[in-house]
Amino acid sequence: MRPTVRCLVWDLDDTLWQEGVPLPSAVHTLHALDRRGILHAATGRGDHTPALDRHGLGELYLARRFGSHRAPAAVRDLAAALDCPVGLVAFLSGDPVALAEVSSVLPDVRCYPASTVERLPELADFTPAVVLPADRERRQVTRAEQRRGAAEEEHAGTPASFVASLGLELEIRPAEREDLPVAPFLRSGGRMFDTLELCGRHAENGQEVVAASLRDRFGPYGVVGLAVLRGEGTSTALELLVSERVLSLGAAEAFVGHLVARSLGTGRRLVVEFELTTANRALLLLLRFSGFSIAARPAGRMTLAVDPLIPPARRRSPIRVLGEGVRPMRRRR
What we know:
This protein is of the alpha/beta class. The protein has helices at residues 12-15, 24-35, 49-54, 71-81, 96-105, 133-136, 138-154, 159-165, 195-203, 251-265, 281-289; strands at 7-11, 17-18, 21-22, 39-44, 61-66, 89-93, 110-113, 169-174, 187-188, 207-216, 219-232, 235-242, 269-274, 293-296, 302-306, 320-322.
């Protein structure tokens, strides 16, 4: 079975409108797919922006290419604008020529005639096996990224001053099962976790899975970090997964700093088993800056630890950490 469509490009000239009014069936499809995390983009010969805004549909179309573009070029540009692989894009149009051109030039794009607009939510291509909270927030996260990027381009100060202006808030809390599917997309200090394994860890007594969610004045980033904590005698073993896209914001450092402070506050030594690769070198630097030192170097790996007797210095951060919801570490029975 091929993967679910992530982005639907609408040729608005022939699919959304009927005598200047949105078709109810098309509006239903817009909202149904949006709730499943499928993003919408728009193309067309004329500028449909005023009409979209007038009918309250503008927020649903995250990228637009209006004008005399050839359909394949417009679809390719819109996919790139939303960072979506072409193989996860679908094209909806009432123009047989445009559909034929896209099928010929971009054979991985799934093409649908306008007559199918009402039935799209029933098709397997548009029906994920599971719809998670992160999927339902995909449009809001993408829109926030767009607004954030535009603001950064207009910012006259330094990158650090722009980060300070974002009003970043990091919520650290017990992970829910709905948070765990993000794990394969996060960077770890060793092997990667899959969702099923983390679900097992989540349910196992004596272990704790913690999630970190980030947001700023533009909106949410989603879950940007997960940590598995396990009591071992007087130590706490930490397995850490973080999003690379927020390393430069200091969010991962704030997450690690919170876990370090919490562990040291209970008198426990925090330990990480780390397998260095080219891909996770930035994560190693993050741990070293957060107070971890190399305690041992077993074959092909290293053991990093924070000594409770030598706590790391507190570092200033532009991020407000909300962590009251994380429960104390449970001991094994």
